[in-house]
Amino acid sequence: MANTIKKISIIGAGNVGATLALRIAETAIADVVLLDIAEGICVGKATDLTDAAPLSGNNCKIFGTKDYTAAADSDIVVITAGLPRTPGMNREELFLKNSAIVRDAAEKIKAVSPEAIIIVVTNPLDAMTWLVLKATGFPKNRVMGMAGVLDASRFIALAAEAAGVRYRDVETFVIGSHGDTMVPVLSHTKIKGRPIEAVLAPQKIEEIVSRTKNRGAEIVGFLKTGSAYYAPSASVFSMIKAITGNTNEVLCVSCFLEGEYGLNDICIGVPAKIGRTGISKIVELSLNDEEKQAFERSAKQIRETIGKI
Ligand code: APR
After folding, report:
1. Distance from the CA of 190 to the center of ligand 1, in angstroms?
2. Which residue in 7, 23, 178, 213 is the catalytic one?
3. What tens digit of pLDDT does each residue of 126-179 get?
4. Domain's final residue, options 97, 125, 145
C-alpha cells in the first residue's frame, strides 16, 4: 500500500459519482478515473471536468472510461454504480438489480486494484457493503459503506436550524441501517455541549428524527427523477479526506462486525476511526435500552436483505 493517495476510481459516473469527481478534482486530492457502463456519459463528464481543472489551478487528471484496466492500482475505489430510487420505491426494492451490478464491479476491482480501499454508496447500502466484502475477500478494514456520515449531516442540519445554532455546535451519531430503521443516538447527541433534551422539546426532537429518516425520500419526491447527490457526494468526500489525511477521525460508516455490538457477519453503520488503512478501529458506544432495541431491529432488517443475496 502506497503512503500517498494518487488515484481514486469512481464506478458509476451519475450524479453522486460525477459530483464526487468534481470535489476531488477541485481539491486536487488525487487523479480520478470516472468509470461507467454508459461510456459517453463518463467520457463527456470527465472531459468537462478536465476543462475545469486549469481554472482550479491544479494538475489533477480526470479520465472517463468503461474499461476497468484504467482503474488499475487505484488507492481508493468508490462504487456508486446502480439504479437510482424513483418516487415511491423503497431502498430494498432496488436490491435485486443493484446487487448484480455491485457484485460485478467488486470482482473487477479485485482483479485490477487488489490493494484498494473500497467505499460503497449503492443501496441498499449495508447489504451492498457486505456483498462487496464477500465478493472481493478484502480485509474488513478496506471495505466500508457511506451512510451514517450522510444521515448525521442531515440530522445536524435539521437540529441546528431548530436550535438556532451553527452546524458545528451539534454533535451526533447515526448508527444502524441506512434506511427507515436508522438510529440517531440521542443519548450521545449534544447541542453546544448540552444534551439535546436540554435544548429542544421532545416533540421537536421526534420531528427531527423522523425528518432525518425520511430525508432521502423527501428529496426524491421533489426531484421526481433521481435522488440526492450533493450531500451524498460530500459525505463520501469527508471519508476520502479522513483516509488521505490519515486523520483517524470518528465517522459513522457501514462496517463489517465481528463481535462488536454483539453482532457477527453483518455490515451495519457504527462509529469508526477512519485513516490511511481504512477502518482502524470500531468505536462501541454505550447505548440505552431503547437505542439497543432499535439497533437490533436495524440489524435484523439488514440480515433479511443479506439473506436474499
Ligand atoms: N457499471 C458501471 N456503471 C453502471 C453500471 C455498471 N454495471 N450500471 C449502472 N451504472 C451507472 C449508470 O450508468 C449511472 O451513470 O451508475 C450510474 C448511477 O448514477 P445515477 O443514476 O445518477 O445515480 P446516483 O444519484 O449517482 O446514485 C448512485 O447511490 O443513491 C444510491 O443506489 C443509489 O444507485 C444509486 C447510487
Report:
1. 35
2. 178
3. 999 999 999 999 999 999 999 999 999 999 999 999 999 999 999 999 999 998
4. 145
